[in-house]
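Quick entry, no commentary yet.
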Amino acid sequence: MRYSLRSIDDEDLDWLYELNKKSFREIVIRQFGTWDEAFQRQSFYANRDSAVSGRIVVNAETRIGVVLLQPKDAYDWESGSSDNLPRS
């Protein structure tokens, strides 16, 4: 398998939301008892921070995950998030 990284485009946002939902829905329900779709969607789009640098993980032209990095200081970065599609 050959993997590559590419920049996140505006066209990826809906896909990223669905990936976020697949990654965190069960955890949110376990912690808070419910998944409020309207709240989660609004929060996801409102919190897209331009300071976060991300890359879409691609395999054979198919998006399979994302890696997000946040600047820590002038020279360091820290991982903000890493999500992958579950295997079918």
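second:
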Amino acid sequence: MLKLRKVAGNSMAPTLQAGTLLLVRTKRRYAVGDIVVFTLNGTEMVKRITGAKDGRFTVRGDNQHDSFDSRAFGGIPAGSIKGCVMLRLSRAINAGPLRPTL
């Protein structure tokens, strides 16, 4: 299933900027390096998976100085992940597929 989401905030800069539209797809498996949309306490967030253990994922923003992520709230359950970012759709100069960078 495909969904559109909009980036709020700067936690994923420079990879994703506030206001960027994202095409998100559900997957059966998620891996380190995937940028995912998940829900935490009713709020959707976009972060990169940096680790996985016991059915939970460690997620971090690419902008580590301006990111509320697993360093603050711990690992997220696999069931909270809504999908993986497949494509950025706005800012045509930056449009295209994402590649994992760690």
